[in-house]
Amino acid sequence: MPEVSTAIQARTTAENLQEKIRSRSARVGIVGLGYVGLPLAVEFARAGFEVTGIDVSQTKADRVNLGDSYVGDVPEAILKPLVESGKLRATSDFSAVRDLDTINICVPTPLRKTKDPDMSFIDSACQEIAQYFHPGLLVILESTTYPGTTDEVVLPMLSKSGLKAGEDFFLCFSPERVDPGNPKFQTANIPKVVGGVTKACTEMGCLFYAQALEHVVPVSSTQVAEMVKLLENTFRMINIGLVNEIALMCDRMAINVWEVIDAAATKPFGFMPFYPGPGLGGHCIPIDPFYLSWKTKQAGIEARFIELAGYINGQMPHFVLSKVQNALNDAAKPLKGSRVHFMGVAYKRNIEDVRESPALDLLLLLEQRGAQVSYSDPHVPALRLDGRVLQAEPQAIAAAADCVVIVTDHAAFDYAGLVRQAKLIVDTRNALKGFESGKIVRL
Ligand SMILES: NC(=O)c1ccc[n+]([C@@H]2O[C@H](COP(=O)([O-])OP(=O)(O)OC[C@H]3O[C@@H](n4cnc5c(N)ncnc54)[C@H](O)[C@@H]3O)[C@@H](O)[C@H]2O)c1
């Protein structure tokens, strides 16, 4: 009776893993120890699991093993004791997979220059995992990606082992929603959506996250879970595109867009404020929607909102450039040869991440037009720009600039001092709300 013995075997594999997860004796692996992976590894270690982080970067693995955090949301005071107590360790050696019971994949999913998905990180992580694959593993992909990736890309790679998903191993997608620098919502208290390739996979994934995170939200498939993340980020990208277009309109009509948004936000229903800015930044909002538009193109649907919002958001650095140029012209200074100082280069306030930051585009645009650029950013001591490294300057240097541009509204800046000392300020973030001065030019 082979069916019966297979069923017993399947129950045993699932039950064994459930038992290990419930007793927190399951050995947890996190592949990719970046902004997403390291906080996740810390949460599971704090929940009492033994966690192994695997990263291709030996430097990152070494730093984790020293308890030396390189992610703003992971304080050393939390990381170090977990490392010292043996709850968390890191390696660049994938053979560690042999001893693991669960694996979360948190590797990058950037775009190629052509705006096509770059799946090479997911591919290579899965190939490495496949080498050491064994029965009883729960694998969860967390990297943001197009709908279908888990079933069409990851499942075939892991199934080459001959093992069966939902019986011999368990495979899910669970989107990561971490918001770096958010003091209220972090890995542990952001609800976690989970979709498995089978019902048993979803249940296993939910059981796993429930040990360390406060809320788990099961959905019916991996595709739904993948699409959830793309809906969330596309929603943000398009609404930011809309409000950026409203800002361009307001500028033309000499209306203060910030005042408009604040007043609109008093409506207690049916409106959610989004704010304009110098352009999109970070590893998510400028990138993820293009994973969706790439996939839907194959289904014959043009993602027109995404393309349009991408275009408008992409114009914002040029709009800020024209603001700087006009402000200098009004002060009888040509842009060429002027000293332009940036306050902030990170892609958003109070964090150190400069990936896709609009500051990078804007610095280059200004340099190409002959401006001399410099920057202050307490979170970014050095900045790689076009093959060079710029060093952050103290805020005091802003007083000597012909024009200061507030690109990132870090809380650490002394805005009152800036308004007193600077000659001319282009404020792209409404950081100077409440200050009245003829030298302030707002977006
Ligand atoms: N940063 C965010 O705010 C955020 C939020 C939600 C979702 N995400 C998504 O999560 C995923 C990870 O993003 P991140 O910001 O943590 O990226 P990251 O670049 O900070 O970290 C990724 C890590 O993976 C490592 N890595 C690369 N290839 C690897 C491989 N083959 N094997 C093992 N390690 C490998 C890198 O060395 C790096 O340490 C992306 O898909 C991203 O879109 C990010």
Structure characteristics:
eight-stranded mixed beta sheet; 15 strands; about 40% helix; binds nicotinamide-adenine-dinucleotide
Provide a brief overview of the structure.
The chain is an alpha/beta fold and 443 residues long.
Write the layout of secondary structure elements.
Blueprint: H1 2-22, E1 27-31, H2 37-46, E2 50-54, H3 58-65, H4 76-84, E3 88-91, E4 102-105, H5 120-131, E5 138-141, H6 149-159, E6 170-173, E7 192-196, H7 199-210, E8 216-219, H8 222-252, H9 257-264, H10 288-298, H11 304-330, E9 339-343, H12 358-368, E10 372-376, E11 382-385, E12 388-391, E13 403-406, H13 415-421, E14 425-427, E15 440-442
Parallel strand pairs: 1-2, 1-4, 2-3, 4-5, 5-6, 7-8, 9-10, 9-13, 13-14, 14-15
Antiparallel strand pairs: 6-7, 11-12
Helix pairs in contact: 1-7, 5-6, 8-10, 8-11, 11-12
The structure holds nicotinamide-adenine-dinucleotide.
Commentary on this structure:
The protein has helices spanning 2-22, 37-46, 58-65, 76-84, 120-131, 149-159, 199-210, 222-252, 257-264, 288-298, 304-330, 358-368, 415-421; strands at 27-31, 50-54, 88-91, 102-105, 138-141, 170-173, 192-196, 216-219, 339-343, 372-376, 382-385, 388-391, 403-406, 425-427, 440-442. The chain has 443 residues and is an alpha/beta fold. The protein is elongated and about 80 Å long. It starts with a helix and ends with a strand. The model has no long low-confidence stretch (mean pLDDT 95). It binds nicotinamide-adenine-dinucleotide. Residues 31-37, 54-57, 60, 106-109, 121, 124-125, 143-144, 176-178, 180, 283-284 line the site of nicotinamide-adenine-dinucleotide.
